[in-house]
Amino acid sequence: MVLQSIQFSPIGNSHYEMYYRYYYINATERPLAISSVADLSLAINNVADLPPIISNATEQRFLLHPGCELNFNTYFNSFSNQKWREYTTLANVRLVLRLKGTVEVALTKLMLNIDGRVDEYVLGGEVATSDGEDEISIEYPAYHNDGIFAFKLRPLTEGEFLGGYYATNIDENAIPEVNIALCVCTYKREGYIARNMKMLRDNIFCNQNSMLRNHLYVYIADNGQTLDAKAITDKCGNWEGGTCIHVFPNLNSGGSGGFSRCIIEALADKERHNLTHVILMDDDVEFTHFTLERTYRLLQLLKTEYEDAAVGGAMFRLHSPNWQHAAGELCKGGLAQSIENGMWNPKPNLDMNRVGDVVRHELTETINYTAWWYFCVRLNDELRANLSMPFFFQWDDCEYQLRIQHTIITMNGICLRHEDFAKKASMSKDYYILRNKWISCAIHPETGYGKGQMKRQIIKFVARNIMEYRYRSADIWLRGAEDFFKGLKWLGAQNPQILNTEIMRYATQMSPVQQLPFDFAYNLLKTERDYKESKLKRLWRRVTLNGYLLPAKGEVTVPVIGINKSFVFRKKRVLNYDLDSQKGFITEKSYKEAWRVVMRLLRVLRTIDRDYEKTVNDYRAKHPQYVTEEFWRNYLGLDPKS
Question: HEC string of 69-90?
């Protein structure tokens, strides 16, 4: 059985070290097939130029030259041995390669030592001579249950590497059947949807050799109701067994409503397609069929005690594809390291071009949450009573996982690329983040978030927004708190489209800077990078309430995200500038607006003192009514279940 195919770097991809490493080697200095430990942080050789790749419509291949080494100790092409052994019934692993020429093959294992360096162990190997027609197979020692496996090639003659895979010897008839519903919630993202569906068509639906053919079905909740469903299914979803891409026009109810709709439709098709799992995935992402294949094999081989485990995909930055944003997080409300969002990310900003970060990623750390950009869970009847809360978006995935408490498996190579969240930030988004966080923490007392944390958080961030002249941002926070105290009955009765339109009115509209009454020059943009403040000035700012007690004068340009209160000290007007869109908005110091926000804050604080315990108890007692299939069918305007 093929466990994991060797992936070639896409043509023109400059981040090829996520796939392979290519070195010039002096064979007399560093023999390849020896049983020893090499500290890779001290043994990096001169990196060669990108090796030639011959590409045609059906395959890619590397040209191999004596004096070079091709190493696959990489994010996509190493094998997560320890996790496969921990979570699955896997008993043996072998490497299968297609080669031309005479090539020395070494099987390796990588482990992270206590001081953060990576050790490489050579487990064995052989010198293979082949004409490229036959596959060679070498087995890894069965007693190695830790680390990650990899391999490297050192050609002794001119030759080629034609591909390969990691495999296991197993009776495939004894493996439970797995069929996956890939659930995508979309809102006017036709370009992403078309591209991703084409990728699935080319590599799975119309590929006779795909392990996922006839085992994958796609469910798309079209919240914008703008997709041409017939075009998508006709071009991308037909095979001899029928249509395997389904598009459902849906009420614009955000991610929580879109994913709930997909799960409801998958549950309706559960027996027809013998569906066993769902994958919830964002629409504005890029991914490959290899991620789905790796997930599929993992699900097939899970041990009985892990058959209800979830699989979480890592998120990489779309425009910096070697940088990982997250791969599982710890959601603990007010007890997390960051009180701003209640999340702790144990693996932020890993560079998967680096061997050390590849190995670091495979350490098992405490997580209880992975976002729904790629989240796989078993499809069973329990989901009918455990769908998302009607949050529209933000914290719906976190609340769900606090409620269900799955074991979450993450693994090298199970990932996708997503637009940076900093580029998607908005004031209206803050409303949902805050309101839904407070509701989630109310439902789940284990988060440790209470009245005191809520009051401190509101005071801190409303005060910050006043100091930055962002009075509308402060209003967003306060509106979120006011709506939190309206309770679940109010939340469940809202039309999400109408409510979202109302919340959007709070957001300051961005305009091209040339249309704003403000003299803009990029070199005047104030950033943290070039700003230094003395202790005396910091004290003076605080004593004067960031200059509110002093006359204001002058103007300043600051970034929309990452503004420092000291940037606006004693300024009269501020241009808030977004470099990506080259748009911005103007804020201005106003004692009237500041006083209005302070009075609204005091009213909210009185409400917290008076109603917090009563509101929290109401959320805890009644939330099970708002996550059922029956509730969601009524909320989305669907026919009742027959």
Answer: EEECCCCCCCECHHHHHHHECC
| Closest C-alpha among 159, 14, 24 to residue 97 | 159
| pLDDT for 36 beyond 60 | no
Phi and psi, residue 157, nearest 5°:
-135, 170
Calpha distance 4→417 (Å, rounded):
20
Helix, strand and coil content of the chain, in percent to the nearest 5, comes to 35, 25, 35
Only one residue has tokens 């992402």, namely 285
Residue 140: what residue type?
Y
- Any long-range contacts for 450-459 (C-beta under 8 Å, 24+ apart)? 450/334, 450/612, 451/608, 451/609, 451/612, 451/613, 453/333, 453/334, 453/339, 454/481, 454/608, 454/612, 455/605, 455/608, 456/339, 457/334, 457/339, 457/340, 458/601, 458/604, 458/605, 458/608, 459/601, 459/605
Q: For residue 465, what pLDDT is reported? A: 92
Instruction: Using DSSP, state whether 150 is helix, strand or coil.
Output: strand
Cβ proximity of 468 and 587 under 8 Å: yes
Question: Tokens standing for 277?
Answer: 């799992």
- The 10 Å CB-count burial string (b at 16+, else e) for 486-522 is ebbeebeebebeeebeebeebbbebeebeebebeeee
CA distance 303 to 451: 42
d(CA 345, CA 323): 14
Residues 629 and 265 sit within 8 Å (Cβ to Cβ): no
pTM: 0.88
| CA-to-CA separations, 412 to 364, 554, 599, in angstroms, rounded | 12, 52, 51
Cβ atoms of residues 298 and 309 within 8 Å: no
Identify the band that residue 147 occupies on the pLDDT scale cut at 50, 70 and 90: very high
Q: What is the pLDDT of residues 202-260, one digit of tens each?
A: 899 888 889 999 999 999 999 999 988 887 776 555 554 457 899 999 999 999 999 99
Q: Tell me how far apart the alpha carbons of residues 20 and 641 are, in angstroms, rounded to a whole number.
A: 51
**Are 201 and 231 in contact, with CB atoms under 8 Å apart?**
no
Whether the Cβ atoms of residue 3 and residue 165 lie closer than 8 Å to each other: yes
> Is the pLDDT confidence value at 6 over 80?
yes
594 contacts: CB under 8 Å, gap ≥ 6: 466, 471, 548
Could you give the CA distance from residue 71 to residue 17 in angstroms, rounded to a whole number? 9
- Res. 37: pLDDT tops 50: no
